[in-house]
Amino acid sequence: MKKSEAISLAKEKLPDRRYQHSCRVADTAVQMAEIFGANEKKCFLAGMLHDYAKYDDLKDMHKIVKKYHMDPEYLQYKSEILHGPIAAHIMKTEYGVTDADILYAMENHTSGRSNMTLVEKIVYVADYIEPKREIPGVKGIRKVVFSEKNLDKAVFLITKANLLHLISKDRMIFSRTIECYNYYNRVKE
């Protein structure tokens, strides 16, 4: 897929605020790709399209999970977890995106997982630290990325913050997020 096609798809489907976020994630992912030696085009495409299914109907998402025999654990969750895997599925089946790096990055950008690919880690982090995000602790994570140049530590800190947030709200935690935390807790240094 060409960059221009990804931009058009995101612009046509997403509300302007979410489209602008996707543009910032794509740009941040490219900056990070330069630092960490990743493929810039893959990072851009995954960043631009990561929220493609963000506003899809939940019932339709559940139908896709069932029809295509996706991880049945997805059925326990709402759009916050499902929009990534559904976006990856749509890009693969409807738009011919076959690159595993791009699809994994889209699929796991909210949950993370253990032993992510470089592109996955970059999009996971870029989504959290893009310039307009004002999440508590984000400035410190930006420093870890751009000054310390420690991507695994950034993944760990983001996953930890996400877990603490979910626990504070008494929300269920997706198993891959726990696996992500445990894995990057071991490898962050």
What's the main sheet like?
A: none
Radius of gyration: 15 Å
Strand fraction equals under 5%
Which shape, going by the Cα principal axes?
A: globular
Percent in helix:
55-70%
How far apart the termini lie comes to: 36 Å
What does this protein structure show overall?
The chain is mostly helical. The protein is 68% helix and 0% strand. The mean pLDDT is 95. It has helices spanning 3-13, 16-36, 40-49, 58-67, 79-95, 100-107, 118-129, 138-146, 151-168, 175-187. Helix 1 runs parallel beside helix 3. The protein contains 10 helices and no strands. The protein starts with a helix and ends with a helix. The protein is globular and about 40 Å long.
Spell out the key features of this protein.
189 residues, mainly alpha, 10 helices, 0% strand, globular
